[in-house]
Amino acid sequence: MSRASDYVTEFMRKQVAEAAGFQCEYCLIHEKDAYFGCEIDHVVSIKHGGSSVLQNLAYSCMICNLYKGSDLGSITETGKLIRFYNPRIDNWNEHFLIQGNAIIPVNEIGKVTARIFRFNEIERRMERDALQEIGLYPKRN
Ligand SMILES: [Zn+2]
Questions:
Q1: How close is the Cα of 73 to the center of ligand 1, in Å?
Q2: Which end of the chain is more exposed for a tag (fewer CB within 10 A), N or C?
């Protein structure tokens, strides 16, 4: 059930998008280059008690947000529960690096995030390739 306080105002959307530089805070694609655009993500989903405050909102492409869903993290190969990368408290460069057209996770938080968000699906890598070629996606971080 949704509460009135779950509502993200147009002003908040704008603030989040601007703070993110109009790019997905997870895979770094710019909203103009994202086929389905970007939207507001609740880092901690409302289902899990997150609310619509700036500290819990991130700018996400539709694809990252779709794969993330209401999840908060995942299980590693060794059975450990690890949270996802949180753009409000984490530094992207401490969890991932860009290598060619791939986003390489450098720790467990990066690994579960990259796997569940499917950062390196072939279609996404090809898209990054094309964007890198015309200077619209970073070649390294
Ligand atoms: Zn994304």
A1: 16
A2: N
